[in-house]
Design goal:
Oligomer: single chain
Distance between the termini: 45 Å
Strand content: 35-45%
Largest sheet: 7 strands, antiparallel
Number of domains: 1
Order of helices and strands: EEHHHHEEEEEEE
Number of helices: 4
């Protein structure tokens, strides 16, 4: 296990298993979806993630081009489009848990801004995980604001 300090979190990761899982996983979320919102995300992915986050994902063994899922929410007043999504890594973390239960079967996320257009958080969950064994998974939640690049919006 490798310990990574990222901002106010201590991330404990099995980097080898995480990298092996991503290397052998089928393409996830937006890579296989045919909707325009996912096509836009894939075309704009390189600017969706700040360099600091891409570097973090490399350190964790995560392929940032293979999200578990991505969701498009809306076009914002500034013309950018709001997306959210998530990844996983095998391990644990210490620090703020971003998941907030709002009811018996509902929750929301309190994400930490990294840039004006990107926020991130960590929690224990395994939604649509690429891992065969979902024990000891950390879910990385993110929100990003990106331009629309597909014609005929």
């Amino acid at each position: 296990m490798t310990k990574i300090i990222f901002r106010e979190w201590e991330l404990i990761v099995d980097k080898e298993l995480t990298k092996l899982t991503y290397d052998n996983a089928p393409l996830g979320g937006p890579n296989t979806c045919l909707c325009l919102e996912c096509e836009n995300f894939v075309k704009t992915r390189e600017i969706a993630y700040p360099d600091e986050i891409k570097q973090l994902f490399i350190e964790l063994g995560i392929d940032y081009k293979n999200e578990c899922e991505v969701c498009h929410y809306c076009r914002l007043e500034n013309g950018l489009h709001l997306y959210s999504g998530w990844f996983h890594f095998k391990g644990n973390f210490k620090g703020k848990n971003c998941k907030i239960q709002t009811g018996e079967n509902s929750s929301t996320f309190d994400l930490t801004p990294i840039t004006e257009n990107f926020s991130i958080g960590f929690c224990h969950d395994s939604g649509l995980a690429l891992f065969d064994n979902t024990e000891n998974l950390v879910q990385i939640e993110f929100e990003t604001k990106i331009p629309w690049t597909i014609e005929n919006e």
